[in-house]
Write a structure and sequence with these properties.
The chain is α+β, with helices and mostly antiparallel strands. Helices cover 59% and strands 15% of the residues. It starts with a helix and ends with a helix.
């Protein structure tokens, strides 16, 4: 495989990793510290990721325990969780915050599955954009022979097909996880 195709594959793998990260933030009915990724707490006037100012543990399968390193931050943690789209009411226990994750309804599972599919489509678009970018690079490079250009384009297409297949597998795994709980 040509180094251009390998470079394209590297960029496509980054899109797949971004998809995995996005899917990890979706609520599945089980407690996971990854659910809180993307929630920023107002920390002395500066938006700070919640996992940088708190320790997050999972004492039970449907419960998260958030302990701020500074007890004065409990109120801002509660406010940040309420402002997020988690749909969970935090319980302020004075020095820590407890999140009880309710079981998901069938309708909510379907909504989350739709969101997972949307993330998958976004990843596919990113992969296709990488393919287009590298195909254009190959076409404008006059130093390459036509046969070599065709071979590179075929390699890029193979890499693209593999990446899209991986995206479909990752989304299917998440769907199965969501619908089986």
């Amino acid at each position: 495989m040509d180094e251009i195709a390998i470079e394209a594959q590297g960029k496509m793998n980054k899109a797949i990793e971004a998809l995995r990260y996005s899917l990890s933030t979706l609520r599945t009915g089980r407690a996971s510290a990854a659910m809180l990724n993307g929630i920023n707490v107002d920390y002395y006037g500066e938006p700070t990721p919640i996992n940088q100012i708190c320790s997050i543990s999972v004492p039970e399968p449907r419960q998260l325990l958030i302990k701020p390193f500074d007890k004065n931050d409990v109120k801002s943690v509660v406010a940040a969780i309420n402002a997020s789209d988690l749909g969970i009411n935090p319980q302020n226990e004075g020095h820590q915050v407890r999140l009880n994750i309710p079981p998901l309804t069938e309708e909510r599972r379907r909504d989350i599955t739709k969101q997972a599919k949307k993330y998958g489509e976004d990843a596919k678009v990113a992969i296709r954009n990488v393919r287009r970018e590298f195909m254009e690079l190959v076409k404008i490079d006059d130093s390459l022979s036509e046969d070599y250009q065709k071979r590179i384009e075929e390699d890029i297409q193979k890499v693209t097909d593999e990446a899209i297949k991986t995206v479909d597998q990752v989304v299917a795994e998440k769907e199965k996880e969501l619908m089986s709980i």
